[in-house]
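U., I forgot to send this yesterday:
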Amino acid sequence: MSLVRVTERAAPDQSATETRPDTETALWFGPTDRPLFGWVHRPADDTAVGAVVLCPPLAREWTNAHYAYRMLAQLLAAAGMLAVRFDYDGTGDSAGVDGDPARVAAWLASISAAIELARESGSASVSLVGMRMGALLAAVAAAKTEPIDGVVLWDPCPSPRAFLREQSALHRLALEDHPVQEGVVELPGMVLDAETATDLGSLEVPDSRHPRARVLLLTRPGRRPQVDLAGALGTEVAEGPALGQERLLDVDLAEREIPVETMGHIVSWLTTQNRRPASTITVPRRESARIGVAGTSVTEQAVRIGPAGLFGIVTDPDEAKVSTTVLMLNSGNNSHTGPSRLWVDLSRHWASMGIRCARFDQSGLGDSPTRPGQAPQVIRAPENFDDVEDARRVLATDPTDVALVGLCSGGYQALEAALSQPMRAVCAINPVLHFTPPELADGPMDPRRRICWPVGSFVGAYRLLAVEPVRRQLSKLLWRVAHLLHRRRNPTGWLDRLRDQSVDVLILCGVNEGRSFGMEAYDTLATADGDRIQIEVIEGLDHALVPAWQRADVATRMTDHLVRVLFPPERPTASDATAPGHGPTETVAR
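Result:
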């Protein structure tokens, strides 16, 4: 094995990521009875000098790295290579769930299917890129697969056991006093059964049956992996720094930064190493799939929405039982899969009950492009008002017969949309209404914002009180005075307007989120028409629903609400059509 140092190169021109939608193909591939979801990014002239399969990390790290992988795929396509990014079996938009058996074998089979997709598209050579646990999975797949040209090990974990210890410890730390489910290893955003945890912890790179590949090992400064993946794979190993990983993976999703300099190293190394002649690319088209759900199946289709070309996935039942379409919005700058994949699970479960569902990325987020003049990755952008309107008109048979579902910023946007346009229902989880709209950096607040309380306004004055008992006593008075000064944003006012517009509303929130829009100022915000407006403050509810049992509890509450709203009373209750999982229920204050 020879060792080569990689010199630092300039970061790529990010304008290269402004690709046309017609050079990016969303598709299902792999087994027809258990389809995988992915994207193929190809050069504009439909020729490529090679293909790169991007193997994602696991759990919360997949969520944080999603947009970086999209940018890397676009940069590779701009540099003349075909790029495949995909979701492992049971993750993202692919078929399956966390609790399915033999997860590690299924993830390795997913990589093999992605490699086959790249070859079927016309590429003569294939390289792999894997981040964190994706690096180990890529290394194992490279050792088992017919010749792989190159492998990029991007910030590999010290070892699989170290990854499990670290991530499970982070999960327990976030849980504080919450119960831990027995018999499983729960990571932030993923639950592994005992078999999968054992298989993953003992995963090693086997002796390769094929010529050893060229390897690029990128590690964080001062860190070395305990397991020598590079040595197990390569005859020639180049090393370089994995710059920016802390700001990509070790921060809250809202604070994530994309490591463009490191991505420049990867693109440069892959294009320099690949000297094969260009070949014509023809991407197989498979834009819909049958997904098995609890003994039945539903149909999913990738769609583009409106003039902006927003990306979404529509989940259709075999027989629609209601006319309403459910639209699911981004939470923060998470993708359309929702918090820890909750939107995927709910879309498929509700479709199996006969409800048409669609999850989509608002402009500049996830897999959707930006609108003209819009910056990417901006949470609560004013363009989101147009995004919801486009989705209503394109995806619903009747734009007024829509139910919106959202968490955090998505919950806020759902409530705002319901005030602006007629619709059937809203399910808002932990909606945050107290924030600084991004447009205030350049001008006035968008007039379409009816319920936003900008940070720095009078409503936040009570937070300056240092003594908690004093703050608790004065907060109700401060909120009431604030609502007198800003009557339009008084929650009792806009909730009354929603009730008058015959919008069924379910708001589920933790104590802090309830305080953020003044709920503690009133004994109850639910009016006498409690069947129309339901507000539940759930003690201990995590803002992002990281614990799996909380996701199951919230899923059950939303399912019960939709069944009550959309189905006549004689229909079965939600308990007859089991929601995705169950967990302990916290004390609820109404």
